[in-house]
Amino acid sequence: xxxxxGPPAAAVTAPAEAGATPARAAGxxxxxxxxxxxxxxxxxxxxxxAFALIVTGTVLGLIQPLLTMRLIDRVSAGxxxxxxxxxxxxxxxxxxxxxxxxxxxxxxxGENVVRRLxxxxxxxxxxxxxxxxxxxxxxxxxxRVGTDTTVLRDMVAGSFVQLVTVxxxxxxxxxxxxxxxxxxxxxxxMTLVVAAVAVTGVMVGIRSSTEQALASVGTxxxxxxxVLGGIRTVRAGRAELRxxxxxGADVDxxxxxxxxxxxxxxVVGPAIEVAVNGSFLFVLLIGAVRVSNGSMAVSELxxxxxxxxxxxxxxxxxxxxxxxIQRGLASLGRVEDVLRLPVEExxxxxxxxxALPPVTGAPVLLDLQDxxxxxxxxxxxxxxxxxxxxxxxxxxxxxSGAGKTTIVSLVEKFYEPDGGRILFDGTDIRGIDPRxxxxxMGLVEQHAPLLHGTLRDNLVYAAPDAGxxxxxxxxxxxxxxxxxxxxxxxxxxxxxxRGFSLSGGERQRVAIARALLARPELLLLDEPxxxxxxxxxxxxxxxxxxxxxxxxxxxxxxxxxxxxxxDRIVVLDDGRVSSVGTHEQLLEKDPxxxxxxxxxxxxxxxxxxxx
Length: 611
Ligand code: ADP
Ligand code: MG
Description:
This protein is α/β, with parallel strands linked by helices. Helix content is 63%, strand content 11%. It has 22 helices and 10 strands. It has helices at residues 7-20, 33-38, 44-77, 82-127, 130-134, 138-180, 182-229, 231-236, 240-292, 298-312, 314-339, 404-411, 434-438, 455-459, 468-477, 481-486, 504-517, 534-547, 560-565, 583-589, 591-600, 605-610; strands at 364-375, 378-389, 392-398, 419-424, 427-428, 441-444, 522-526, 552-556, 568-573, 576-581. The strands form 2 sheets. Strands 6-7-8-3-9-10 form a 6-stranded mixed sheet, sandwiched between helices. Helix 6 (138-180) packs antiparallel against helix 11 (314-339). The longest helix is centred in the middle third of the chain and has 53 residues, at 240-292. The protein is elongated and about 120 Å long. The chain binds adenosine-5'-diphosphate and magnesium ion. Residues 404-405, 446, 526 line the site of magnesium ion.
C-alpha cells in the first residue's frame, strides 16, 4: 500500500481490502468479541510488548501483599525491616512504570487500529457502487468513519489492559488467598459470583442503548450535513429554528439512550460497592474470629484483606472494560456494515482484467437496445432504443424527470439496466470493467462539482498528464481563458472545495473543459449549458459542433441552440423514445417535440434573433 496515487494502484489494493474484510458472511449478525480481537491484526508486536509490560507490572503488584505480610511478621518479631521497605518502594515504582509503558503502547495500538480502519473505510467507500451511495445518508457514513472508529480506538486502548490486569490480578490474588486461607476465600468468591451475574445482565442493556445512541449520532450528522450544505435555502426559508429543532431531536434521542445506559451503569456501581464492602466486612469479622482463636496470624489477615481488595477493586475496572467492549461491538457493527457495502466488480478484479475488446471502428459507437430501468418499484425507462454514431452530436431532450440523467447513469455503468442491452463499440458493457469502460468516456454532470485543489488540478482530473498546450486549448474551447487571467494565481488558484469562488456557469465550463481534456471517444454532457449566458452558450455550442467532428457527443439538452446544432435528436417522453430525427424532421412528425420546443426548451436571445 505504498503507491496510492494512480488508479491502477487503487484497483490493486482494493482486492486485498476485499480479502481483509471480516470473514463472517455478509449480514451474519452482530460482531462478537473475537471480531474485536481481529482488529489487533497487524499490531501483534506492539500488543505483545504492551502485555509483557503489563503482566510483569501486575505480578510485581501481587508480590506486595506477601511482602507486607512478611513485614508485619518481622515487626512483631522485632526484626529489622529497612530492606523490606526499600523493596516495597522499588516494587511500587517499577509497577507504575511498567504499567505506564504498557498503556502507552496500547494507546499507540489504538491509534493504529483507527488508522487502519479509516483507510479501509475510505478506500471501500470510494469503490462502493454509486447506486449504494445514492441510497444512503452520506452524513451517517461520515459518522462511521469519524466517530465509530474513535470508539474502537478507546476500546483497544482502554479495555484490553484492564481486562488483562483484572484477570491476572484476580487469578493471582485468588490463588494466594486460597493458599493463605481456603475457607475465607470461599466467602469472598461467593459474593463476587453474585455481583458478576448481576453485572452481566445489565451489560446487555447497555449495549443496546449504546447502539441506539450511535445511530442517533449518525442521523444527526447526516441531517446536519444536509442542512449546512443547503444553508442558503434554509436561511431563505427562515427555517433555522425548525431545522435546529429537528436535529435537536436526534441529539435528544442520543441523550435518552445515553441516560438509559448511565442508569443501567449506575446500578452496577453500587451493586459492586455493596459486594466489595460486604465481603470486606465479612472477611474482617470471620478473620477476627479466626485470629482470636489462633487459627490465623494477624499478618495473614492483613495480607488477606489486601488481596481481597486486589480481587474486588478491579471489578470496577472490569465493568468499565466491559462497557467499552459493548460500545466497541456496537461501533464495530456499524463499521463492518460499511466495509460490507457492495463495491463495483472492478475493485475485485485484478488490474489486468480491465482489457477492453479491440476497437472495431464500426460506425455506431453507442447502441441502446430496448433498455428498461427502474429505481425500486417505479419504472423510469421503458424499452429505450437509440444509437450514437462514432462522430457527431446527438441531443437527448425531454421534460425534466423523463429519465435523461438516468440514461447517462446507465451508459456510465453507475446502474445496471433491468432489461435490454447497452453496446459500446459492439460489445455489451455489462461484462466490461467499469473503470476501463469509463476511461473511454467523458462526463459532465448536471450539477458539475469542483473537487479540491487548484483550478489546474480540477481541469486535469481525468487526464493527469495533459500538457499546458492541451489545457490552454480546452480553456479556449469553453471560453475560460479570461477567467484564468482574472484569478489571482491563474491556473494555480485554489478553487474552494465546493467551488464557491466560481459561479455556476464557470463551474460548468470547468467541468466541460475537464471532460474535453481526457479526449474521450464519447462525451456525455448532462445539461452542460444550463447555467451559461446566451453568448457563452452559443460559443460552447459551436465548440461542441467542432468537437463532434472527431468524436461522439451525447448531450442532454434543454436549450434550443444546442438542440438545433445536433445532427440527430432523441426525444424522450416519460421513459420512452417518442421519436428520433433532425430538428426539422421532428417539428414535422412529432407533436410532442413541437410542444416541447414551444413550452419547455429554453430559447435564448440568439435563438430568437436567428429564428
Ligand atoms: P431527467 O434527467 O430527465 O430530469 P432523471 O433521469 O434524473 O430525469 O429521473 C427520472 C426519474 O427517476 C425521476 O422521476 C426521478 O425522480 C427518478 N430518480 C432519479 N434518480 C433517482 C434515484 N437515485 N433514486 C430514485 N429515483 C430516482
Ligand atoms: Mg437530469
